[in-house]
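Escalated from tier 1: glycine holo job.
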Amino acid sequence: MRRNFLPILGLLSLFVLGSCSAERDPKIASLKHAIGVADSQLLDAAAELDTTNCFPRSLMPKFRAVDAKDWTSGFFPGSLWQCYRFTGDEKLLAEAKKYTDRLEGIQYYCKGTHDLGFMVFCSFGQQMQTLHDRHSEEVIVEAAKSLISRCDPRIGVIRSWDFGEWNYPVIIDNMMNLEMLFWASKHTGDPVYRDVAVRHADITMKNHYRDDASSFHVVSYNDDGTVESQGTFQGYSDSSAWARGQAWGLYGYTMCYRETGDAKYLKHAERIADFIMHHPNTPADRIPYWDYNAPDIPDAPRDASAAAVVSSALFELSTMVPEAEGKKYFDYAETLLMNLSSDAYLAKKGTNGGFILMHSVGHLPADSEIDTPLNYADYYYLEAIGRYLSLRGLDPRRI
Ligand code: GLY
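Tier 2 regenerated the structure:
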Protein backbone atom coordinates (compact mmCIF):
# COMPACT_ATOMS: atom_id res chain seq x y z
CA MET A 1 0.00 0.00 0.00
CA ARG A 2 2.72 2.46 1.03
CA ARG A 3 4.55 1.84 -2.21
CA ASN A 4 1.64 3.30 -4.17
CA PHE A 5 2.15 6.68 -2.58
CA LEU A 6 5.78 7.04 -3.65
CA PRO A 7 5.20 8.13 -7.24
CA ILE A 8 2.53 10.55 -6.06
CA LEU A 9 4.85 12.00 -3.44
CA GLY A 10 7.62 12.22 -6.03
CA LEU A 11 5.41 14.09 -8.43
CA LEU A 12 4.17 16.35 -5.65
CA SER A 13 7.67 17.27 -4.53
CA LEU A 14 8.69 17.93 -8.14
CA PHE A 15 5.69 20.22 -8.44
CA VAL A 16 6.39 22.01 -5.16
CA LEU A 17 10.11 22.38 -5.82
CA GLY A 18 9.56 23.36 -9.44
CA SER A 19 6.89 25.89 -8.69
CA CYS A 20 9.12 27.55 -6.07
CA SER A 21 12.17 27.83 -8.31
CA ALA A 22 11.50 31.32 -9.62
CA GLU A 23 10.85 32.70 -6.14
CA ARG A 24 13.99 31.18 -4.72
CA ASP A 25 16.42 31.79 -7.56
CA PRO A 26 16.75 35.18 -9.31
CA LYS A 27 18.26 33.52 -12.38
CA ILE A 28 15.20 31.33 -12.80
CA ALA A 29 12.96 34.32 -12.13
CA SER A 30 14.73 36.16 -14.90
CA LEU A 31 14.18 33.29 -17.35
CA LYS A 32 10.56 32.92 -16.30
CA HIS A 33 10.12 36.59 -17.14
CA ALA A 34 11.96 36.11 -20.46
CA ILE A 35 9.70 33.22 -21.44
CA GLY A 36 6.66 35.39 -20.73
CA VAL A 37 8.12 38.13 -22.89
CA ALA A 38 8.89 35.64 -25.65
CA ASP A 39 5.34 34.25 -25.63
CA SER A 40 3.83 37.69 -25.96
CA GLN A 41 6.33 39.00 -28.54
CA LEU A 42 6.07 35.95 -30.78
CA LEU A 43 2.28 36.21 -30.84
CA ASP A 44 2.52 39.92 -31.72
CA ALA A 45 4.88 39.17 -34.60
CA ALA A 46 2.71 36.29 -35.80
CA ALA A 47 -0.34 38.55 -35.85
CA GLU A 48 1.57 41.19 -37.82
CA LEU A 49 2.11 38.79 -40.75
CA ASP A 50 -1.07 36.79 -40.29
CA THR A 51 -2.49 37.32 -43.77
CA THR A 52 0.80 37.05 -45.67
CA ASN A 53 3.12 34.22 -46.64
CA CYS A 54 6.05 35.86 -44.88
CA PHE A 55 8.21 35.54 -41.79
CA PRO A 56 9.59 38.29 -39.53
CA ARG A 57 13.37 38.66 -39.92
CA SER A 58 14.62 41.92 -38.42
CA LEU A 59 13.74 45.51 -37.65
CA MET A 60 16.38 48.01 -38.76
CA PRO A 61 15.88 50.36 -40.42
CA LYS A 62 12.29 49.07 -40.67
CA PHE A 63 10.37 45.86 -40.06
CA ARG A 64 11.73 43.29 -42.50
CA ALA A 65 9.50 40.39 -43.51
CA VAL A 66 10.86 37.69 -45.83
CA ASP A 67 9.44 34.87 -47.88
CA ALA A 68 10.08 31.14 -47.54
CA LYS A 69 13.21 31.22 -49.71
CA ASP A 70 15.08 33.54 -47.35
CA TRP A 71 17.79 31.75 -45.35
CA THR A 72 16.18 32.87 -42.08
CA SER A 73 12.64 31.63 -42.82
CA GLY A 74 12.80 28.63 -40.46
CA PHE A 75 13.75 30.49 -37.31
CA PHE A 76 10.43 32.16 -36.54
CA PRO A 77 8.41 28.93 -36.74
CA GLY A 78 11.17 27.25 -34.73
CA SER A 79 10.90 29.89 -32.03
CA LEU A 80 7.13 29.42 -31.90
CA TRP A 81 7.59 25.67 -31.37
CA GLN A 82 10.22 26.14 -28.69
CA CYS A 83 8.17 28.68 -26.81
CA TYR A 84 5.08 26.48 -27.09
CA ARG A 85 6.97 23.67 -25.40
CA PHE A 86 7.96 26.10 -22.63
CA THR A 87 4.49 27.46 -21.96
CA GLY A 88 1.86 25.12 -23.41
CA ASP A 89 0.13 28.21 -24.82
CA GLU A 90 -2.30 26.86 -27.42
CA LYS A 91 -2.15 30.14 -29.37
CA LEU A 92 1.56 29.53 -29.96
CA LEU A 93 0.80 25.99 -31.10
CA ALA A 94 -1.66 27.24 -33.72
CA GLU A 95 0.82 29.84 -34.99
CA ALA A 96 3.68 27.33 -35.01
CA LYS A 97 1.69 24.99 -37.24
CA LYS A 98 0.61 27.82 -39.52
CA TYR A 99 4.09 29.29 -40.00
CA THR A 100 5.70 25.87 -40.45
CA ASP A 101 3.15 25.04 -43.16
CA ARG A 102 4.32 28.10 -45.07
CA LEU A 103 7.67 26.35 -45.57
CA GLU A 104 6.25 23.18 -47.09
CA GLY A 105 7.71 23.72 -50.58
CA ILE A 106 11.21 24.52 -49.38
CA GLN A 107 12.19 20.85 -49.03
CA TYR A 108 12.68 20.71 -52.82
CA TYR A 109 14.62 23.96 -53.03
CA CYS A 110 18.13 22.73 -53.78
CA LYS A 111 19.16 25.12 -56.48
CA GLY A 112 19.51 28.37 -54.62
CA THR A 113 20.70 27.63 -51.11
CA HIS A 114 22.83 25.64 -48.73
CA ASP A 115 20.72 26.93 -45.86
CA LEU A 116 18.12 24.17 -46.00
CA GLY A 117 19.25 22.98 -42.60
CA PHE A 118 18.42 26.33 -41.02
CA MET A 119 15.19 26.62 -43.00
CA VAL A 120 13.84 23.11 -42.57
CA PHE A 121 15.49 21.60 -39.50
CA CYS A 122 14.78 24.66 -37.34
CA SER A 123 11.10 24.62 -38.39
CA PHE A 124 9.98 21.10 -39.30
CA GLY A 125 12.68 19.74 -36.97
CA GLN A 126 11.10 21.58 -34.06
CA GLN A 127 7.64 20.49 -35.20
CA MET A 128 8.85 16.88 -35.28
CA GLN A 129 10.36 17.24 -31.81
CA THR A 130 7.02 18.52 -30.54
CA LEU A 131 4.46 16.42 -32.41
CA HIS A 132 6.53 13.35 -33.41
CA ASP A 133 4.74 13.45 -36.77
CA ARG A 134 5.57 11.43 -39.85
CA HIS A 135 5.01 14.38 -42.19
CA SER A 136 7.85 16.43 -40.66
CA GLU A 137 10.17 13.45 -40.98
CA GLU A 138 9.35 13.10 -44.67
CA VAL A 139 9.94 16.80 -45.31
CA ILE A 140 13.30 16.71 -43.55
CA VAL A 141 14.52 13.67 -45.49
CA GLU A 142 13.54 15.38 -48.74
CA ALA A 143 15.40 18.52 -47.68
CA ALA A 144 18.47 16.46 -46.81
CA LYS A 145 18.38 14.96 -50.33
CA SER A 146 18.21 18.46 -51.76
CA LEU A 147 21.06 19.67 -49.56
CA ILE A 148 23.54 16.93 -50.50
CA SER A 149 22.88 17.63 -54.18
CA ARG A 150 24.92 20.80 -53.60
CA CYS A 151 28.05 18.78 -52.79
CA ASP A 152 30.47 18.32 -55.69
CA PRO A 153 32.23 15.02 -54.87
CA ARG A 154 35.45 16.26 -56.47
CA ILE A 155 35.61 18.97 -53.83
CA GLY A 156 33.88 17.20 -50.96
CA VAL A 157 32.06 20.14 -49.41
CA ILE A 158 28.57 21.57 -49.85
CA ARG A 159 28.58 24.70 -51.95
CA SER A 160 27.22 27.73 -50.14
CA TRP A 161 26.52 30.61 -52.48
CA ASP A 162 25.78 30.89 -56.19
CA PHE A 163 26.62 34.59 -56.37
CA GLY A 164 29.89 36.50 -56.35
CA GLU A 165 33.33 36.11 -57.89
CA TRP A 166 34.24 32.89 -56.12
CA ASN A 167 34.59 29.58 -58.01
CA TYR A 168 33.04 27.44 -55.22
CA PRO A 169 32.40 29.38 -52.02
CA VAL A 170 31.82 27.63 -48.71
CA ILE A 171 31.00 29.64 -45.61
CA ILE A 172 31.56 28.61 -42.01
CA ASP A 173 27.81 29.02 -41.38
CA ASN A 174 27.30 25.87 -43.43
CA MET A 175 28.48 23.77 -40.47
CA MET A 176 25.03 24.42 -39.00
CA ASN A 177 23.26 22.69 -41.88
CA LEU A 178 25.00 19.37 -41.21
CA GLU A 179 22.81 18.50 -38.22
CA MET A 180 19.92 17.74 -40.55
CA LEU A 181 22.15 15.37 -42.55
CA PHE A 182 23.18 13.41 -39.46
CA TRP A 183 19.53 13.08 -38.51
CA ALA A 184 18.57 11.92 -42.03
CA SER A 185 21.09 9.07 -41.94
CA LYS A 186 19.93 7.96 -38.51
CA HIS A 187 16.32 8.07 -39.63
CA THR A 188 16.66 6.38 -43.03
CA GLY A 189 19.58 4.08 -42.29
CA ASP A 190 21.27 5.42 -45.42
CA PRO A 191 24.83 6.60 -44.60
CA VAL A 192 25.04 8.94 -47.59
CA TYR A 193 23.90 12.04 -45.67
CA ARG A 194 26.24 11.44 -42.77
CA ASP A 195 29.16 10.75 -45.12
CA VAL A 196 28.65 14.12 -46.81
CA ALA A 197 28.41 15.82 -43.41
CA VAL A 198 31.59 14.22 -42.07
CA ARG A 199 33.60 15.03 -45.18
CA HIS A 200 32.33 18.60 -45.13
CA ALA A 201 33.26 19.00 -41.46
CA ASP A 202 36.74 17.53 -41.99
CA ILE A 203 37.60 19.67 -45.00
CA THR A 204 36.20 22.78 -43.30
CA MET A 205 38.30 22.10 -40.21
CA LYS A 206 41.38 21.95 -42.41
CA ASN A 207 40.77 25.01 -44.58
CA HIS A 208 38.60 27.44 -42.63
CA TYR A 209 40.65 27.55 -39.44
CA ARG A 210 43.68 29.61 -38.58
CA ASP A 211 46.37 28.59 -36.08
CA ASP A 212 44.65 30.50 -33.24
CA ALA A 213 41.39 28.53 -33.83
CA SER A 214 39.63 31.53 -35.31
CA SER A 215 37.84 30.99 -38.59
CA PHE A 216 37.72 32.56 -42.01
CA HIS A 217 34.20 33.21 -43.17
CA VAL A 218 34.47 32.16 -46.84
CA VAL A 219 36.79 29.57 -48.34
CA SER A 220 36.50 29.08 -52.07
CA TYR A 221 37.70 25.95 -53.85
CA ASN A 222 39.04 25.21 -57.30
CA ASP A 223 37.39 22.39 -59.22
CA ASP A 224 40.16 19.97 -58.18
CA GLY A 225 39.44 20.64 -54.49
CA THR A 226 42.42 22.90 -53.84
CA VAL A 227 41.80 26.18 -52.04
CA GLU A 228 41.18 29.15 -54.32
CA SER A 229 40.88 31.80 -51.58
CA GLN A 230 40.28 32.36 -47.88
CA GLY A 231 38.49 35.49 -46.73
CA THR A 232 35.75 37.13 -44.73
CA PHE A 233 32.69 38.60 -46.43
CA GLN A 234 30.46 39.55 -43.50
CA GLY A 235 33.24 40.45 -41.08
CA TYR A 236 35.61 43.38 -40.79
CA SER A 237 38.50 42.03 -42.90
CA ASP A 238 39.85 38.83 -44.39
CA SER A 239 42.08 38.31 -41.37
CA SER A 240 39.53 39.28 -38.72
CA ALA A 241 37.31 37.06 -36.58
CA TRP A 242 33.66 37.75 -37.43
CA ALA A 243 31.80 37.01 -34.20
CA ARG A 244 28.89 35.00 -35.58
CA GLY A 245 31.21 32.93 -37.73
CA GLN A 246 33.10 31.86 -34.60
CA ALA A 247 29.77 31.02 -32.99
CA TRP A 248 28.56 28.93 -35.95
CA GLY A 249 31.83 26.98 -35.89
CA LEU A 250 31.66 26.31 -32.15
CA TYR A 251 28.08 25.10 -32.40
CA GLY A 252 28.80 23.06 -35.53
CA TYR A 253 31.78 21.13 -34.18
CA THR A 254 30.10 20.54 -30.82
CA MET A 255 27.16 19.05 -32.74
CA CYS A 256 29.54 16.97 -34.92
CA TYR A 257 31.06 15.46 -31.77
CA ARG A 258 27.58 14.64 -30.43
CA GLU A 259 26.67 12.93 -33.71
CA THR A 260 29.90 11.02 -34.35
CA GLY A 261 31.75 10.64 -31.04
CA ASP A 262 34.92 11.55 -32.96
CA ALA A 263 37.29 13.17 -30.46
CA LYS A 264 38.88 15.45 -33.06
CA TYR A 265 35.62 17.41 -33.27
CA LEU A 266 35.48 17.77 -29.50
CA LYS A 267 39.06 19.01 -29.38
CA HIS A 268 38.32 21.48 -32.14
CA ALA A 269 35.19 22.77 -30.42
CA GLU A 270 37.19 23.27 -27.22
CA ARG A 271 39.85 25.25 -29.08
CA ILE A 272 37.16 27.50 -30.60
CA ALA A 273 35.57 27.91 -27.17
CA ASP A 274 38.93 28.99 -25.75
CA PHE A 275 39.36 31.54 -28.53
CA ILE A 276 35.92 33.01 -27.80
CA MET A 277 36.11 32.89 -24.00
CA HIS A 278 39.59 34.36 -23.66
CA HIS A 279 39.62 36.91 -26.42
CA PRO A 280 41.02 40.19 -25.06
CA ASN A 281 38.43 42.22 -26.98
CA THR A 282 35.51 40.57 -25.25
CA PRO A 283 33.61 43.18 -23.21
CA ALA A 284 32.72 42.84 -19.54
CA ASP A 285 29.22 41.46 -20.14
CA ARG A 286 30.67 38.92 -22.61
CA ILE A 287 28.22 39.81 -25.42
CA PRO A 288 30.73 40.06 -28.26
CA TYR A 289 31.28 42.97 -30.60
CA TRP A 290 30.12 42.03 -34.10
CA ASP A 291 33.73 41.28 -35.06
CA TYR A 292 36.50 40.54 -32.56
CA ASN A 293 38.76 42.86 -34.57
CA ALA A 294 36.32 45.69 -35.23
CA PRO A 295 38.43 48.86 -35.38
CA ASP A 296 36.03 50.97 -33.30
CA ILE A 297 35.95 48.75 -30.21
CA PRO A 298 34.68 49.65 -27.54
CA ASP A 299 32.14 51.63 -29.59
CA ALA A 300 31.47 48.86 -32.11
CA PRO A 301 27.96 47.32 -32.15
CA ARG A 302 27.40 44.14 -30.19
CA ASP A 303 26.03 40.95 -31.68
CA ALA A 304 23.47 39.31 -29.41
CA SER A 305 22.90 36.62 -32.05
CA ALA A 306 26.50 35.41 -31.72
CA ALA A 307 26.13 35.41 -27.93
CA ALA A 308 22.93 33.34 -28.11
CA VAL A 309 24.52 30.75 -30.42
CA VAL A 310 27.62 30.52 -28.21
CA SER A 311 25.53 30.19 -25.06
CA SER A 312 23.50 27.33 -26.50
CA ALA A 313 26.61 25.58 -27.87
CA LEU A 314 28.55 25.91 -24.61
CA PHE A 315 25.71 24.39 -22.61
CA GLU A 316 25.98 21.34 -24.82
CA LEU A 317 29.80 21.33 -24.74
CA SER A 318 29.69 21.50 -20.93
CA THR A 319 28.14 18.03 -20.89
CA MET A 320 30.86 16.46 -23.06
CA VAL A 321 33.97 17.05 -20.97
CA PRO A 322 35.16 16.30 -17.42
CA GLU A 323 33.29 18.16 -14.69
CA ALA A 324 35.76 20.95 -13.93
CA GLU A 325 36.07 21.89 -17.56
CA GLY A 326 32.35 21.50 -18.07
CA LYS A 327 31.69 23.94 -15.26
CA LYS A 328 33.86 26.52 -17.01
CA TYR A 329 31.74 26.25 -20.16
CA PHE A 330 28.47 26.12 -18.22
CA ASP A 331 29.35 29.23 -16.20
CA TYR A 332 30.30 31.21 -19.29
CA ALA A 333 27.12 30.13 -21.10
CA GLU A 334 25.08 31.05 -18.04
CA THR A 335 26.67 34.50 -17.90
CA LEU A 336 25.77 35.06 -21.54
CA LEU A 337 22.23 33.85 -20.99
CA MET A 338 21.67 36.01 -17.93
CA ASN A 339 23.06 39.11 -19.62
CA LEU A 340 20.92 38.51 -22.70
CA SER A 341 17.96 38.24 -20.31
CA SER A 342 18.70 41.63 -18.74
CA ASP A 343 17.05 44.92 -19.70
CA ALA A 344 20.10 45.70 -21.83
CA TYR A 345 19.17 43.04 -24.40
CA LEU A 346 15.71 41.62 -23.65
CA ALA A 347 12.87 43.61 -25.18
CA LYS A 348 9.94 44.95 -23.22
CA LYS A 349 6.58 43.45 -24.19
CA GLY A 350 4.94 45.35 -27.04
CA THR A 351 8.20 46.88 -28.31
CA ASN A 352 11.00 45.75 -30.63
CA GLY A 353 8.71 44.76 -33.52
CA GLY A 354 7.70 41.55 -31.81
CA PHE A 355 11.27 40.27 -31.55
CA ILE A 356 12.63 39.02 -28.24
CA LEU A 357 16.21 40.27 -28.16
CA MET A 358 17.67 43.62 -29.19
CA HIS A 359 21.17 44.49 -30.44
CA SER A 360 22.38 42.06 -33.08
CA VAL A 361 24.27 42.65 -36.31
CA GLY A 362 23.40 41.04 -39.63
CA HIS A 363 25.80 42.22 -42.32
CA LEU A 364 27.66 45.34 -41.26
CA PRO A 365 29.97 45.73 -44.27
CA ALA A 366 26.87 45.83 -46.49
CA ASP A 367 25.34 48.40 -44.14
CA SER A 368 22.54 45.93 -43.47
CA GLU A 369 20.86 45.02 -40.17
CA ILE A 370 23.10 46.85 -37.75
CA ASP A 371 22.11 46.94 -34.07
CA THR A 372 18.79 45.26 -34.73
CA PRO A 373 16.75 42.34 -33.49
CA LEU A 374 17.24 39.21 -35.63
CA ASN A 375 14.99 36.16 -35.74
CA TYR A 376 17.94 33.79 -35.34
CA ALA A 377 19.16 35.56 -32.20
CA ASP A 378 15.71 34.80 -30.75
CA TYR A 379 15.77 31.18 -31.91
CA TYR A 380 19.13 30.32 -30.33
CA TYR A 381 18.32 32.35 -27.22
CA LEU A 382 15.23 30.19 -26.66
CA GLU A 383 17.29 27.08 -27.34
CA ALA A 384 19.85 28.22 -24.76
CA ILE A 385 17.06 28.77 -22.20
CA GLY A 386 15.76 25.27 -22.87
CA ARG A 387 19.19 23.69 -22.54
CA TYR A 388 19.96 25.63 -19.35
CA LEU A 389 16.72 24.62 -17.64
CA SER A 390 17.16 21.03 -18.74
CA LEU A 391 20.72 20.91 -17.33
CA ARG A 392 19.37 22.25 -14.06
CA GLY A 393 16.65 19.60 -14.08
CA LEU A 394 13.85 22.14 -14.32
CA ASP A 395 10.62 21.93 -16.28
CA PRO A 396 9.96 25.30 -18.00
CA ARG A 397 6.22 24.93 -17.31
CA ARG A 398 6.84 24.67 -13.59
CA ILE A 399 9.39 27.35 -12.84
N1 GLY B 1 24.26 32.73 -42.39
C1 GLY B 1 24.41 34.11 -42.53
C2 GLY B 1 24.69 34.84 -41.27
O1 GLY B 1 25.07 34.28 -40.26
O2 GLY B 1 24.56 36.04 -41.29
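Residues 197 and 301 are 33 Å apart (CA to CA).
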